[in-house]
């Protein structure tokens, strides 16, 4: 999985006044969990652009002043309800021997016979939650729709691998090919024409 480096500084004052001062200076207060003790730090809001405002999943390297560096994943983020600015971010430290749970985006591959026949592909789950060791975290979960005819569904069991565990019930639908209105209308008209032809006989 691709990684993005976040350069920050540890902070000692974690009260409301200190936090407000940080935000006014264009900094985002953050906490890194998963180690012996939580680490409070701050980083420029622009540093999170490629980590937060993207459909892709990334790990993060928290690079703090003084030579401290930690591999982590974004665990929780708070936005301002009006301005959408980032108010606070929680990270979770990665350990090579400990599994983590993270949402991975789904990428569709292949050509569906159902779509080529006029059906509409609907991606029901754009992201799936998986559990894996850090080394096995994928960039994407690939959903092959080559076998989907009109009306068919692709379930999570079809995208499972040994590298990670999908944290959804087996009957969870990843995507499906629905009959389009145009195809449904054409089928109805064809049925009417067939019925009318039968009456004439």
Automatic annotation (TrEMBL):
Belongs to the bacterial ribosomal protein bL25 family. CTC subfamily. The gene is rplY. It comes from the Bacteria. Part of the 50S ribosomal subunit; part of the 5S rRNA/L5/L18/L25 subcomplex. Contacts the 5S rRNA. Binds to the 5S rRNA independently of L5 and L18. This is Large ribosomal subunit protein bL25. The lineage of its organism: Bacteria, Pseudomonadati, Bacteroidota, Flavobacteriia, Flavobacteriales. Pfam families: Ribosomal_L25p, Ribosomal_TL5_C. The keyword Cytoplasm does not apply. It comes from Pustulibacterium marinum. Keywords: Ribonucleoprotein, Ribosomal protein, RNA-binding, rRNA-binding. One of its GO terms (molecular function) is structural constituent of ribosome. One of its GO terms (biological process) is translation. This is one of the proteins that binds to the 5S RNA in the ribosome where it forms part of the central protuberance. Residues 99-179 form the Large ribosomal subunit protein bL25 beta domain. Residues 6-91 form the Large ribosomal subunit protein bL25 L25 domain. GO terms for cellular component: cytosolic large ribosomal subunit.
């Amino acid at each position: 999985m691709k990684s993005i480096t976040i350069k920050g500084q540890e902070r000692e004052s974690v009260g409301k006044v200190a936090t407000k001062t940080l935000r006014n200076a264009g900094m985002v207060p953050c906490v890194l969990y998963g180690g012996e003790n939580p680490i409070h730090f701050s980083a420029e809001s622009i540093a999170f652009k490629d980590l937060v405002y993207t459909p892709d999943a990334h790990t993060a390297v928290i690079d703090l002043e003084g030579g401290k560096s930690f591999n982590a994943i974004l665990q929780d983020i708070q936005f301002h309800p009006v301005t959408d600015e980032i108010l606070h971010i929680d990270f979770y430290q990665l350990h090579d021997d400990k599994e983590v749970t993270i949402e991975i985006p789904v990428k569709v591959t292949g050509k569906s016979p159902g779509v080529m026949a006029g059906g509409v592909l609907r991606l029901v789950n754009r992201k799936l939650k998986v559990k894996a060791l850090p080394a096995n975290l994928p960039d994407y979960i690939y959903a092959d729709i080559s076998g989907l005819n009109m009306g068919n569904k692709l379930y999570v069991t079809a995208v499972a691998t040994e590298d990670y565990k999908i944290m959804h019930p087996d009957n969870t639908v990843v995507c499906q090919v629905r009959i389009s209105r145009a195809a449904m209308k054409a089928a109805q008209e064809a049925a009417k024409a067939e019925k009318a032809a039968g009456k004439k006989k």
